[in-house]
């Protein structure tokens, strides 16, 4: 009776190894060959002489995937279609690529590396010869071993195990040994028929090449070549964009080369992912580049464009629209709440100064996002400062056209390396390859990888190094305009401007500004609006809601630091000029009256969200009471902000401040509160 090898009670691998040790040649036929699985047998074959009669001949069958098997079985036409040279070469190339793909799966080990090198060496020494059987799919698993034994010269193993580590020793299989002389002769003849078949093609040299081009190669790859390969793959998006689109004729001479590249890459991002954020620094022509992208999409896809921008940029965008013949409408961002719900469909939207839409809870943000979602519009976002406070500034802008659960094909790997996938899913319960997943990461590496898919951003130094020409006379970098004139990059040379402050001179304005009484007055300000956490009651008649509890917690975090930050900003305004200081004081007083109005009427305080960055003057250098600190809360729909109104109406008395504060609070409640 034959022995049964099922890899449960008895494993096939030890029996095969014992027989190989006594053999001088072998013939294997398998349906699948794992290159890394060869290391389980290589030491037994290494002692063979090689060449015909002293080697291992291996036939690998061509197999179909399960879906291909079903498609073939259900096909109306059952003909095989025959085999020809062209088909054979195509199949040989495809199967060779499958072998190459094997080596890209899993983590390489030293043992795998040594095993693959040994396989390549044995193929070169003719100790192993590998052929592909292409005439028809072949799933046979046969191991014939020949030894110098006159009584039992051939031993066979027949069953279901492929030439893989799991097939030989781990997963459940069913194999038997064949010791009968006549049966072994018939199996050997069966193997010879297939080995000598016209469509059994030698692939030995191809396997050697695959191994020598992989991580298992003998000669290490130079680090520079690895760097070039990484750069090649990382630049795939940019290279695809450069070859995919052409610049419209009207822009040919008006765009610099770096602008042309940005336009093509941006068009590629929009075409592939539905949107792009052009984030070049100030002065590099984002408006012209966005106009060129819009023209490309209008010409190629027939899209019409809606341009949303701050009110002071409406005239400029209308000029661009007319000059470059865009089928576009320009809309002030202050009008989106009232106009977008009834506006006809525009398939492309340009949003200038998109950093103003960092707060996804705002009404303007929701109006724009809902319009984009309902009309399936593509987006071009323009911002020189897309990241201002936290990484959520970036994701909130991307959320305008990227749903939070959309498949992105990448994951926040740095975060997952720290947390682990299981813990991440337990805590955050969102898809790993989604924008929502990235929003939970605080690692710059993760955000760089995300923005690589959506952001086009170059700095002046990058353009100087890669696009500018050098004047041989003075060594300065320059670009050439369409009329041939040169535009030189400025060379910044810091200079110290010194001046004296004379406390004894009554005409010295800086001495007056920083007089002791002024400094003492600023230092003595209590600034309760910036320390609201100091006034929170320890007990409440009714417990705060969840959202109220979060606000109270944030207030307690700010404490004295925010109050100190406000004083620091007042000193900075004072140092800037007397006029700047007066404007800051007026804003401060007006905001105080807004709070007083809310307290008097028993209404909720207009508390805006504050970021920790606001507490660090090294990073954030804006007036603590400027409207930009809490964007869009106190802006009028006609674009006139509280400061303009203050000067137009002359806030000079307490009644003036009270009246204006009541108007601002009413506007906050009716239009801007979320």
Notes on the structure:
By secondary structure, the chain is α/β, with parallel strands linked by helices. It has four domains: 4-67 and 81-212, 2-Layer Sandwich (Endonuclease, Chain A), CATH 3.30.870.10; 242-456, Tandem AAA-ATPase domain (Rossmann fold), CATH 3.40.50; 459-494, no CATH class; 509-672, no CATH class. Helices cover 45% and strands 12% of the residues. The chain is built from 27 helices and 17 strands. The protein has an eight-stranded mixed beta sheet, with helices on both faces. The chain has a six-stranded parallel beta sheet with strand order 11-10-12-13-9-14, with helices on one face. Helix 11 (257-273) packs across helix 12 (286-301) and helix 25 packs across helix 27. It is elongated. The model is unreliable at 609-648 (pLDDT under 50).
Topology:
Layout: E1 4-5, H1 12-21, E2 25-30, H2 42-45, E3 56-62, H3 66-73, H4 85-102, H5 110-124, E4 128-137, E5 142-146, E6 154-159, H6 165-170, E7 175-178, H7 181-195, E8 200-202, H8 204-212, H9 223-234, H10 236-244, H11 257-273, E9 275-278, H12 286-301, E10 305-309, H13 314-323, E11 328-332, H14 336-339, E12 348-352, H15 363-375, E13 378-382, H16 392-398, H17 413-419, H18 421-428, H19 435-438, H20 444-451, E14 455-456, H21 460-466, E15 469-470, E16 477-480, E17 486-488, H22 509-513, H23 516-524, H24 546-576, H25 578-601, H26 642-649, H27 654-672
